[in-house]
């Protein structure tokens, strides 16, 4: 891996422009298409509770032309902005779906999980990271597809019985979400939401989503700090995307509490996740084909 990608970051992110150019063959480019897609993705990500990193990383990598490690680190800045705004707005609502006991247990696991995930991520190359991304994207797509008719089901505010096995399970789920955060530039919701929603009968999708978003504030903040130390955050590129992330989060929380919107988001998200996975798969296939031709 090039040392220039891991050069120290300054307040404006200038060191990373040259780093990006080193790996991608040119400077990062300003893409109106990327901004539009990210704005739509930030709304959709907030509705679904995934924090938006699952969309931000490929947008920054393919459209803005950031190297994959730099795209991962930069996307976490956007995830942090989205999750902070979404959680504040959710908390302020009279029909808030937050369960702070569950959030606290998730954090017990996610904080050490993020440390482990970051160390693991620094030891794998971009090709392996793309293969992992494909698996996570397809798993997330399968999860959203199988939630048909259940996205908004269930009563809010039902007491969740947390005996010792369930407490241990929620902490383990938090560890898994924290592990994925710095590794893939996500908040961890692609794992946490289905794990909570499908294993805790008292918890409905909106509650699982809200708890995951609150956990992702700490996950993403910790992961941003780790990536800043490693020199893999491009703050200048992140700035306009962060503004859109805040607006998208506001609209997403409003929309998810409206009848029928969660189901629309479920279908749209499934399609987008599959398309992004196919794009990564194309890169992996092309690289393997090129390597095979070189050897022959």
SSE arrangement, N to C: HHHHHHHHHHH
The assigned structural class equals: mainly alpha
Distance between the termini: 25 Å
Structure annotation, total helices: 11
Q: Give me the oligomer status.
A: single chain
**Which regions contain 5 or more consecutive residues with pLDDT less than 50?**
1-25
The number of E-state strands comes to: 0
The largest sheet is:
none
Q: Determine the fraction of residues in helical runs and give it as a percent range.
A: over 70%
The gyration radius over C-alpha positions equals 18 Å
Query: Quick one: overall form?
Result: globular
> Per DSSP, what share of the residues sits in E-state strands of 2 or more residues?
under 5%
Q: Indicate the mean pLDDT.
A: 80
Give an account of the 3D structure.
This protein has 296 residues and is mainly alpha-helical. The chain is 75% helix and 0% strand. It has eleven helices and no strands. Helix 4 (68-92) packs across helix 9, helix 5 runs parallel beside helix 9 and helix 7 (164-184) packs across helix 9 (205-230). The longest helix has 35 residues, at 261-295. The chain starts with 13 loop residues before the first helix and ends with a helix.
């Amino acid at each position: 891996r090039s040392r220039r990608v891991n050069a120290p970051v300054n307040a404006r992110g200038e060191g990373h422009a040259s780093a990006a150019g080193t790996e991608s063959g040119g400077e990062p480019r300003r893409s109106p298409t990327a901004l539009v897609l990210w704005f739509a993705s930030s709304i959709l990500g907030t509705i679904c509770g995934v924090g938006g990193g699952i969309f931000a990383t490929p947008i920054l990598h393919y459209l803005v032309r950031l190297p994959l490690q730099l795209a991962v680190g930069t996307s976490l800045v956007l995830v942090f902005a989205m999750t902070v705004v979404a959680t504040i707005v959710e908390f302020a609502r009279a029909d808030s779906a937050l369960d702070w006991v569950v959030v606290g247990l998730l954090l017990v696991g996610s904080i050490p999980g993020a440390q482990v995930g970051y160390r693991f991520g620094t030891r794998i190359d971009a090709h392996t990271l793309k293969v992992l991304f494909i698996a996570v994207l397809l798993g997330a797509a399968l999860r959203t597809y199988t939630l048909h008719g259940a996205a908004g089901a269930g009563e809010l505010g039902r007491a969740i019985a947390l005996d010792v096995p369930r407490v241990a399970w929620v902490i383990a789920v938090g560890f898994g979400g924290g592990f994925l955060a710095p590794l893939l530039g996500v908040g961890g919701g692609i794992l946490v939401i289905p794990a909570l929603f499908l294993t805790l009968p008292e918890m409905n999708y909106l509650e699982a989503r809200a708890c995951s978003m609150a956990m992702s504030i700490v996950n993403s903040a910790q992961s941003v700090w780790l990536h800043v130390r490693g020199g893999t955050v491009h703050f200048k590129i992140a700035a306009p995307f962060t503004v859109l992330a805040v607006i998208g989060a506001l609209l997403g929380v409003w929309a998810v509490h409206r009848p029928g919107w969660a189901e629309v988001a479920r279908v749209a998200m499934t399609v987008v996740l599959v398309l992004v996975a196919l794009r990564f798969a194309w890169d992996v296939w092309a690289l393997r084909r090129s390597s095979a031709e070189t050897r022959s």
